[in-house]
Amino acid sequence: MVDVIKNTQVHCTYGCKSSKAVQPNVAGKMISKAKRPLFIVGSQILKDEELLKRSIEIAKKADLPVAATGHSMSGLVDKGVNAKYINVHALATYLCDPNWTGLDGKGQYDTIIVLGHFKYYIDQVLSGLKSFSKLKSIAIEREYIQNATMSFGNITPDVHIEALDELIDNL
Amino acid sequence: MSELTTGKFSMAISDLENVQITINNIVGAIEKQVDETDLEMGPTVKPGVSSLRDWDHNILDRYNPVYTPMCDQCCYCTFGPCDLSGNKEGACGIDLAGHNAREFMLRVITGAAAHSGHGRHLLHHLIGIYGEDHLLDVGATNIIAPNVQLVTGVSPKTLGDLDSVLSYVEEQITQLLAAVHVGQEGAAIDFESKALHGGMLDHVGMEISDIAQISCLDFPKSDDEPPLADIGMGCLDASKPTLIVIGHNVAAVTDIIDYMDEKGLNEKMELGGLCCTALDMTRYKTNDRTLPRAKVVGTLAKELKTIRSGIPDVIIVDEQCIRADVLKEASKLMIPVITTNDKVMYGLKDRSNDSIEDILEDLTTGKEKGALMFDYVKLGELAPRLTMMMSEIRKQKGIKGLPTDEELKELADSCVHCLKCEVACPNSLPISEAMTALSEGELSNFELLHDKCIACGRCEFACPKDIDIVNVIEKSSQRVISEEVGKVRVGRGPISDPEIREEGVNLVLGTTPGIVALVGCSNYPDGTKDLFTIADEMLRRSYIVVVSGCSAMDLGMYQDEDGMTLYEKYPSRFKSGGLLNTGSCVSNAHITGAVIKVASIFAQKNISGNYEEIADYTLNRVGAVGVAWGAYSQKAASIGTGCARLGIPVILGPHGSKYRRALIGKPYEEDKWTVYDARDGSKMQIPAAPDYLLTTAETVEEMMPMLAKSCIRPSDNNMGRMIKLTHYIELSQKYLGIMPDDWFKFVRTETDLPLAKREKLLKILEEEQGWEIDWKRKKILSGPAMKSDVSAQPTNLKRLCKEA
After folding, report:
1. Fold adopted by A20-169
2. What is the pLDDT of residue B38?
3. What is the value of ipTM here, to two decimals?
């Protein structure tokens, strides 16, 4: 079992509430348990084949609808995942709105999982959700995402891939 | 008692006896002068903080403020710190949304104050030299100052006329700042309105700054073919004595350029600039299209790298966007620093009244690390002479900036790969991996990082081994740095009336697909090439691309497949497929100015004191979008917010999320996407575009289709809509690999559909959307949510409707 909850150093600490560090197996189980999850996949998955592969695997195995942000869509087309393009800043806005019915029109989500984003960008975007919604967010990035509800720590690319494999085993 | 009128009063105060001067009367005289002209005045001449509040609430109802706080505490007053997490209220009663709105407003007025403070300094300086009767001349236009006129109703003719307008801006900024105090405004929505007010004022302040310097300093005046200037770290000849100027205010530098001309020093030494002063140096005395004497080294991101290179022999700073550690860094390499503006003084001694010889003595012997100098004539002689002397001295002492090859290897070997630098790096650059490669003699990793590194230096402070990582990156990248040579079009100033007259109709009907304005700073997510990529794509598609400031610089650093920069490839005229550099940061006002002029010249709207109507016109009819891809500054926040109030949407790069506030609409709230038809006051459905007034994009690829969609307006005719929709669909397919899922919402009739794909798209509309198609005539019978009516007059304002 890889340990990913050690290094949760952030460049600055802002405010009172920081995400709880989470191990891959726990994150995996939580994702499986979510009633109305949404997998938010950013364009950084395109920079690493291994990461792209695992993103697709997670979406498929847990049967997660995918919000493809940035231009991640270009790596997800025809890969058998249920993905739709949406701008992440707009998405976070809609996620705070109880009247939004989701990408599929079936209602608001209860858990989001984020992977493949710029650290600073997703952290900012999630701060809106942390402050103005009850949504649970799980960051499975290779960096500690302070404004998520739960997050991996700062880890190396190799450990990250290992952690995602472990997460996939626990889905 | 006789009253004074502006522009005619001139007398030495010492000659006067028994004269009482009441400042109020002078201001009154200016207002009277406005009354005396035949200008039609709109309802909001010199609007106060609440005058345009209805308009703000109107647009904020559709484009909701979105807060993404950096910190969930408030530490403003001694009640605190207060925990506002989960939108709790603090001790004073403000909640997190209100506090964030307040902070955003503060950011905006900080930016506006920087520009208008810059304007005040310039205006004071220029009036001192040229007198307040000096005529404003910005080229072929009857609207010298569109932003000034729109907001204040004043059509300035002389330098002196700008003074009272600037006083208005200053007074309003003070009023806004007052609202930041604890126990003032409590509602986020009204902090938003105040922020929009601050943004609007910023464009007035910027415009004043730029038209004053254009009129006095012989800058290009609405020139559609200004000369090209050299740009890049590689364009400096390091063997020559080198003077580097950093900042935004050219006032201090013009005397230096004149002295160098006069003494024939142009070939003997290098004069280079960083940030907007550099751009304005290239504009100085180039109205006759002579080649600029100064070179542009680059943007803010090149400041530390340029100092660390050891190439500058003297550094002069003025104001804005200057690293706070310039003196500290320069001193390490025996580079004297001269500060020239009271906004940045670094604790240096004021030497304005000392002799040049004394100052030279103190600086060349190292007795003083720098000097503060407010006498620009003196500076004109001091700086070049000091540069020539320091060059010799620094050579003799063997001062060198960067490590040797051996030292470089040692530095790389000493890395313990703890990853602290990567956590500290704002772009999470893979430094550790590059250190490993460097240890093995491989430079390419760092060469790649060099362009993505903004040289902030945070990594060095994080490093437990005290490795000067910025130096490592720079030394490893010497090959690529030496090749960093490009061309930038010298800032042309405003868009002329003839250009607007020719192009206005195409913009409003949509047959020119839109204006894309690339503005702002150099805090990019993935290197400097993004700007080139955006401009290249949009220019090929015949958008008008307008640039300014640091964006204008980085764009010129790349060549197309024929070896040409985009500036060399595309005309600098305001027309479909034109690439225009308006100039420096304050020249951003000419971009909003052009939009205001479209309403004035093409649509014959009164613009004087008529802000709301013109903003409404822009929002509904002018397909323009701003891109601040590397925005980092408070100034960029105020520029963008000024655009938002005027109805121009702005996209920021991902770092822009750290402004912590966006204005985003919800396309699924259908009742928000209606306007009035001014012909009869009836409601009409409009497409959800632009669906934001300020937002961020993750990558350039994502932004491409966003840009096309952002230029769609209700007023597009069928040809215009077809062109815009074609680009939207093509860009989405090219960069995201998909048809956009909302493309059909922009279709009103079959003639809105891209010609080449019409039949295929009709089929999709029939099969996927259930629209009824007459296949014989290839016509849409039913389906679209809105009608095609080119004579409709979309407006958000009930008061402008005939039946209202």
Report:
1. Rossmann fold (3.40.50)
2. 61
3. 0.95
